[in-house]
Amino acid sequence: MTLPAKPVQRPAKLALTVSDALGTDAAASRIAEIQKRTLALSNFTYLCIRDDLRSPDSFADICGVAAVLWEGPLVIESDEPEAIAKGCLHLVGRSPLVHCKEAHAEASAIAASLGCRVLSLPGDGGDAVDAGTQDLSEIPDAIHLLKGYDPARPVTVHVPAGEYGVSTAAAAMMLGADLVIADDLDAASCALLDRIATFRTVRRWDP
Description:
The protein is of the alpha/beta class. It has 6 helices and 10 strands. The model is unreliable at 120-147 (pLDDT under 50).
């Protein structure tokens, strides 16, 4: 007989993003702004570096800036194997999470070989200790897909900026998302989501 999952309090983690399209100087300013905005928030521990330019060298440069300025855990988001490889070389010893929006075997293999943890897409056979991902900014009703995730498998979602991103992030956490990446949020939205992340309860197996 299958026992029901018990609701447990399990804080979610959150991340804001910095784009390689900013260039190194503006990216440094952006990281400083994120640090100031989230300083008093216990769950905004991650920084996500986005590969928007599809330029491996530009992406690597921003990874280098983040490695120096951000002391917490990092997520690098790219589908380009060369960008992931060059970015990870700047993050040796940091063990960043790698978020591939598409199931990209070569990118995942490179990331794993460099000591990174790959956030795997649902159904791709990824290691259960890492996360299943679904990019909610591209599929508006994808929030409903969270209801079908394995509760033993951490879930990562990426939401857009603005009010829609706030509401989607809140719903995702209440449905069980463990790491929420948001493109941008103002200070009040960050504070709200941090509180939800702290006190939300999720259904997890509790043997």
